[in-house]
Amino acid sequence: MDAAVWALDLKDPLTIEASASRVDSEVVPAGAVYHYNFGARGDKPPVKLSWYDGGLRPASPDELAPGEKLEGGANGMIFLGEKGVITCAGWGGTPRIIPDSRMDAYQRPAKSLPRSKGHHRDWLEACKGGKPAAATSNTARV
Fold first, then answer.
1. Is 7 helix (H, G, I), strand (E, B) or coil?
2. Considering only CA atoms, which of 60, 62, 80 is closest in space to residue 70?
3. In whole angstroms, how far apart are CA 24 and each of 29, 52, 53?
């Protein structure tokens, strides 16, 4: 959820709703869905964020061509907005706007966030007294 939390400046959710498959005393559920509702943040509107786990998946966006697969296989993200859809593989995949005609017309903004040397390297450098690792410093502000 890091990408959505950082990009949309999300803090504490107003509500969280969860549903899961049967749970027993020895294992976690085979699958679960979590819906987080965040309030407005300044001039930014409320946001609903959903997390699907254990092989459960949301419906494919209408903008996806018939028979086309989303990036990431079993691990990915879908951002549904009023102006379009962005998908990407999880764990740092390259975002893609669908349909492709919208991606072709998109102009990337200048890079504004510090680039990671990889989460292991960032963590090791932080342990040695360097700047805090990105995951640590960004999580701390949430």
1. helix
2. 60
3. 8, 20, 17
Q: What gap in Å lies between CA 121 and CA 69, rounded to an integer? A: 33
Q: What angle do CA 62, 51, 41 make, to 5 degrees?
A: 90
All structural domains of the chain with their residue ranges: 1-56, 64-108, 115-142
Per-residue pLDDT tens listing for the chain (142 residues): 888 888 889 999 999 999 988 877 787 788 899 999 999 999 999 999 999 988 788 888 888 888 887 776 667 888 888 888 888 887 767 888 988 889 999 998 898 877 788 888 988 999 999 988 776 544 443 3
Distances (CA, A) of 52 to 34, 36, 83, 117, 125: 7, 12, 23, 29, 33
**Cis peptide leading into 99, omega within 30 of 0?**
yes
DSSP 57-96: -PPPPTTSPTTPPPTTTTSEEEEE-SS-EEEEETTTPPPE
